[in-house]
What we know:
By secondary structure, this protein is an alpha+beta fold. 34% of the residues lie in helices and 25% in strands.
Amino acid sequence: MSIAEEILKKAEEYRDEVAQFLRDIVAIPSYSGQEKEVVDRIAQEMRKVGFDEVKIDGLGNVFGRIGNGKPVVAMDAHIDVVGVGDPTQWKHDPFKGKVENGIIYGRGAGDQKAGMASMVYAGKIIKDLHLEGDYTFYVVGSVMEEACDALPWKYIVEEDKFRPDYVVITEPTNLNIYRGHRGRIEVKIRTKGRSAHAAMPEMGDNAIYKMARIVLGIEKLNNELKPDPFLGKGTAVVSQIFFKSPSENAVADECTIHIDRRLTKGETKETAIAEFEKVIKDAGVEAEILEQTYEGHAYTGATYSSEKYFRTWVMEEDSPIVQTAVETYKELFKSEPKVDKWNFSTNGVVTAGLYGIPTVGFGPANEIYAHGPDDQAPIDHLVKAAAFYANFMQIISKKEK
């Protein structure tokens, strides 16, 4: 029996255990900045299955380590979740980890506690089959990613001084291999006016009317953006609008919009800002562009900030890390993987986009259920992903020799 076959067999033996672990952590609400209980539960499971070291950093990210050699590979799952939304839309209680027809349901089941469950049991596979080698395998449970997907890994690299050789992002990919995604920048644009009584609007200068011209310009910009053959088209969306006025019966003296600008390959913060400046100029009004910063307050008491600029990243299909993932998949599953991209954003904006660490994605569950009331993960996916992560470490350590 080959090592890959042994890994698959062992992963199947842990089917019930990995499923129960996922159910346990789904049942723990872990909103951004409130992850302590789920971090403690993950650390407990890491110790139970035999990780060499388990630690929690100052921001609250949890790390499990096996081995001490080269290369150093970090596999990442964020373990915070978004809100429930309208509870009446949920078929199952979002915090019960309900199992039905081989699928685990609940907030965070797919996005993305499934990745965490599979990574931890990849560690158990490695330990039980004595597959430790000349490599270091880190499992990282990152916090506050849903609030700001640059924040946890910026802290890990800058404050923990931890910079692995490779990163595997375990966000849901439906067991496909993903090699990048679009980035984004969030900005606000503000117009100022002069208030006056609504009965005499000619005496004022309406900031909302000024902003209306800019909003139409953003809509036009979105329609004119050019696509990339792999990542597709960038987008520009006015997602929120705010105003200030002395009363309901007065001309608004200030108006602000929030813009989500998704960035395809070749687009950057600088090119996006230049586009917004042109929109304002074409609108014929005065306005201010306000770049945004997120300040996160961790459950540990730490405060950490990041600009709301999330860089686009793409790994070439023939890059070593992508080819390692492809080889891992083919060796395990005896078929060709689909190599694609995420539609949404991940911690790869920092690992690959900011720091240039070779990064690839492979995760259980389908991203189409992320953030919705049907958040879910098939148990079959948990088993296969655990096998993939364990085998990935065998393949990449051989390639590094």
